[in-house]
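thread from #wetlab-drylab

HS: before we spend reagent money on co-crystallization trials with calcium ion, can we at least see a predicted complex? here's what I'd submit
DV: go for it
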Amino acid sequence: MRQKIIIDTDPGQDDAIAILLALASPKKIDVLGIVAVAGNVPLNLAKKNALKVVEISGFLDTKVFAGCDRPLKRKLVTAENVHGKTGLDGPDLPEPKIKLQKQHGVDYIIEALRSHKTKTITLCPLGPLTNIATAMQQAPDIIGRIKQIVLMGGAYFEVGNVTPSAEFNIYVDPDAADFVLRSGVPITMLPLDVTHQVLTTQKRIKKIKNIGNETGKIVSQMTVFFERFDEAKYGSDGAPLHDPCVIAYLLKPKLFEGRQVNVQIETKSKLTLGMSVVDYWGITDIKTHPRNVNFIRNVNAKGFYKLLTKRLALLP
Ligand code: RIB
Ligand code: CA
């Protein structure tokens, strides 16, 4: 059965690869729309980058929308230091020819959930949760219509990447993350704990480059740029390929392992703002701390890259 999804994204090289993986799997995934959100880069760049990625894929009818340009309450924090000034540094990509949809991305999410059969759409946030929380707050009736949310965000054993205690997507808009995690929608979280197991090692990227198509070349150029920051920080061979874990989870959930736990977001403390507090060992009382998240902790990295490389080979 094809899974209907809406991708919410702040491209970012890893977002781009996640979008390509989804579009390269049309028999398994029906990408209803892509909604840009401010995160890695401001919205004006995120929306343009989403258009560029759709053009790389060749699926030019894919609808792209612009969503929120800032977090619910806080000042926007971006990550050009990681993703470059365009947000998609690495390959030299042309200005997109395809156009954005006129409708606001949040209105699109609401309309899509209201017009499709209930519990048939999966939301796939790859950036801050601003659009998702805004849609839920503007139209509470859609909450019960969402099949599930499969998101990249959070961290526990791996601790933070933008502060010692917080992962970037959650940190940028902790209020949105808190609202979404309390919504009661079935949530699967792909945190740094799992994304740090899928490093873009030279061997893996060489295989992608050697696919021989334009997509393989562009993806290898993206990762070569994107990984320099994490290699310097962690001293690793390659960088974590965060966002494609969301799509790989939809395609092959058996590659992943996790457990249903209580996860809460710190929205007040300056010291630990944006921390995802994960009751991994079930210490809290289920009556006061619902097990609201399927928290993914491990992945078969070999299987992940085999899937990614195989699917990217199907694109132009
Ligand atoms: O912390 C990693 C996340 O932040 C990824 O989604 C990356 O694209 C950035 O948005
Ligand atoms: Ca992202």
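DV: The two ends are 25 Å apart (CA to CA).
HS: ok that's useful, forwarding to the group
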